[in-house]
Amino acid sequence: MRFKCNLMVVMVVFLGMLISPGAEGSPTEQNDRTLSPYFFVKSDDGTVDQLPLKSTSAEVNVAGVIADVQVTQVYENEGKRPLEAIYIFPASTRAAVYGMRMTVGSRTIVAEIREREKARRDYEEARQSGKSASLLEQQRPNVFQMNVANILPGDVIQVELKYTELLVPTDGIYEFVYPTVVGPRYSNQPASEAPPAEHWVANPYLMEGEKPPYGFDIQVHLAAGLPLQEVICPSHRVHTRYEDRSRAAVSIDPTEKNGGNRDFILRYRLAGGQIQSGLLLYEGEKENFFLLMVQPPSRIPVDQIPPREYIFIIDVSGSMYGFPLDISKTLLRDLIGNLRPSDRFNVLLFSGGNSVMSEQSVAATPENVHRAINVIDNQKGGGGTELLPALKRALSIPQAEGCCRTIVIATDGYVSVEKEAFELIRKHLGKANMFTFGIGSSVNRFLIEGMARAGMGEPFVVSKPGEAREYAEKFRKMIETPVLTDIHADYGKFDVYDVEPPSVPDVFAERPVVVFGKWRGHRAGTILIQGKTGNSYYTQKMEVRREGAHDTNAALRYLWARHRIATLSDYNQLQQDNDRIKEITQLGLTYTLLTAHTSFVAIDSEVRLVNGQPVTVKQPLPLPEGVSNRAVGGAIARQKSFSVAAPAMDLVAREREAKDEEADGSSKGRRKDSVEIEKLSTSAGLSRETVLAALRPEIASLEISCQKKLTKPPTAETRVTFECVVDPSGRITKVRVIKSNLHEKDFECCIAQKLKEVRLSARSATKDATFTVSLRLRWV
Fold first, then answer.
1. Do 249 and 109 sit in the same domain of this protein?
2. CA distance 564 to 694
3. Which residue, 459, 479, 499, sits at the end of a domain?
4. Total structural domains in the chain?
5. What is the CATH number of the domain that holds 512?
6. Which of 310, 383, 504, 606 has the most Cβ atoms closer than 10 angstroms to its Cβ?
7. What per-residue confidence (pLDDT) applies to 713?
């Protein structure tokens, strides 16, 4: 049994070596590892509770178009040593997080908003002094990190955070999304060069199909303000109780207690398909806020549509293997198969590399459409997720003359280059608009929505196979022509300022025009919204004096500030500006909001841990439902070997233990397992980076399928060398063992068979290429 457990760890490490972008080089220092997620392997230390998060739940109150959410996380230490728990979790991209509190036993501590660096320092000081403390930081607008320090054995600590968000309907459908899990982020950035805010990427994940180790619950109270036509939840089994025509209570079914591996999605439609449009006002002590929502006009006839060109960018990386890629195939068949003969199109596939169907877009003839569908159908999913090179190549394709270009990208968004992608799209904004399809049960909505916003398009999230055709049809209807263009708002005598957005973009969907802002003086005047729809003009008026200012609209101050912060952050991604950073920080402090530069910290006054240090553990996350093990690798750049020790703990904890062991000599004689790639060579122009990126997804399948083939443990000098033949399409056609002193044929054949399932990026060459990889399994 001991041999089997050690072998499993060895195989995880061995496969982690395969993904190293520069594994063919000589060994380098530990700090050359890349930021990358890794698989959680529970250690044998029974004194440490490696799963301290016991439950996460949400209480949601929707009033009109505003959702107010309270999230409760419960941590418990079932081990025998004090803990510091680190938990990475998502939230809506539109969430304005405005409060947090921590409960330890009978004591409740309300968190304070502070500048990020100060909040971190205060937290570390509390942790070192033995006080219970919690710290909430924003790593992305939709990714948060919770640290909870000094959870003593037997402790139950409860952390509550509050946020609000605006619900904007599309095609008459309102949607509330509660994200449940952060998908693994592909990163090729060396850890030694990464800022601290990026280290969250290196987080442990459970294996594919493993249920979340913590409970999940959500309750929604819906007060629409207008009669409800229907309320549905496509993501989870729920019970819906209608309290009257405009109110409903939604509770999750008890069978979904492990449903925290996919986004909770609630959709509702108002009677008659109408949407809530109007003016909301709030009078504060120092400032007054307004929110304007105006229903758009109907669509114009299809015969007014000009010729169009479509560039389809499809993610075929390892995390898209299986269910996500199958959805993408269905989606693309519907999109490409229904283009008009006057349209032109192209298809670009990307993973660790990228390939394009044609150097120039082609006419949407039946022959070209059939060719494109065949290209997509042959994809299996494998390799890294190099998004930026794919975007650059798509944007460099010569544009068809006389055509309006639209770029469509389908991906799960499991990358860490969101800022760079937004900047690239904005720089090319005049050349094309961008529509995005997030594919999967827990996509990176920050990337999906951000790319669409940067490209003046619309985002879609397809979470189930049956939705692909439905969203393809929605997309076709949407892009036939913009609903409203050249939009202008005239506020007349209504004295407004700090209006967001300063200019209103074209409306592609049947979704309202939304404007935030502040106002001063009397509630008087008329707001006039004007624009063009097809060849005619559109006008809608709103009388300010008819609307009252209500305390129930207090969330407007948070929503305005969150929108302003998002706008400033978008500009900052284009070019860093200290004045903008100061403004974002001040907004966070003034309106008590979590931002990239402000954090919430709660510190107990009582010292609870004396003469000791807590063990730091990262809460392992489940893989989002439908995501394969191929999405996780534990990549290490420019390093060819590493040791495994307490994989459940984070890097900081491992380094602390290593220093302690070195000081007292307790590590002497300890057995360490490692695997080295001694040599990797390629031929015929095949790059080593391409090979390693394609081998990356095979971590789990090799470890799970082949480890049982060994009949005895490897020795200190065990080596196996494989030669692989790769055809121009990227398929590995032949694998053979050319050297081995392991003498385990079943094991070698198993590895060879798995290697034949690997798919590399297609090459422009016409001849086969080969690569040879020599592995050394070592037990010391």
1. yes
2. 41
3. 479
4. 4
5. 2.60.40
6. 383
7. 67
Q: Side by side, which strands form the sheet with 228-232?
A: 173-178, 264-270, 228-232
- Phi first, then psi: what are they for 434, rounded to 5°? -120, 125
Which token pair is 589? Answer: 């402090």
Same-domain pairing of 415 and 332 = yes
Per the CB < 8 A criterion, the answer to whether 707 and 14 are in contact is no
C-beta neighbour count of 5 within 10 angstroms: 13
Helices 556-574 and 578-590: angle between axes, nearest 10 degrees: 160
- Is 550 within 8 Å of 281 (Cβ atoms)? yes
The pLDDT tens digits of the residues spanning 153-184 come to 999 999 999 999 999 888 788 999 999 998 88
Pairing relation of β-strands 362-363 and 288-294?
A: unpaired
Asked whether residue 626 is domain-assigned, the answer is: no
Helix pair angle (2-18, 699-706), 10° resolution: 150
Tell whether 474 and 571 lie within a shared domain: no
**Who's near 543: CB < 8 A, 6+ residues apart?**
526
Q: 552: which DSSP letter?
A: G
Q: Which of 479, 510, 536 is the last residue of a domain?
A: 479
Contact assessment for residue 619 and residue 86, using Cβ atoms and an 8 Å cutoff: yes
242 and 182 within one domain: yes
Q: What is the DSSP string of 200-256?
A: GGS-EEPPTTPPPSSEEEEEEEEE-SS-EEEEE-SSS-EEEEEEETTEEEEEE-GGG
pLDDT at residue 572 in the model: 61
Is the domain of 101 the same as that of 243?
A: yes
With respect to residue 612, please indicate whether it lies within any of the assigned structural domains: no
Respond yes or no on whether the N-terminal peptide bond of residue 501 is cis (omega within 30° of 0).
yes
Q: Can you give the residue range of the structural domain that contains 737?
A: 2-33+635-779
Claim to verify: residue 494 and residue 573 sit in the same structural domain:
yes
Residues 6+ apart with CB under 8 A from 582: none
Q: Mind listing the pLDDT tens digit for each residue in 119-143?
A: 999 999 999 999 999 999 999 888 9
The answer to whether the beta carbons of residues 542 and 278 sit under 8 Å apart is: yes
Q: Which two tokens stand for residue 271?
A: 């009677």
Structure tokens at 119: 């909040």
The DSSP letter of residue 185 is: P
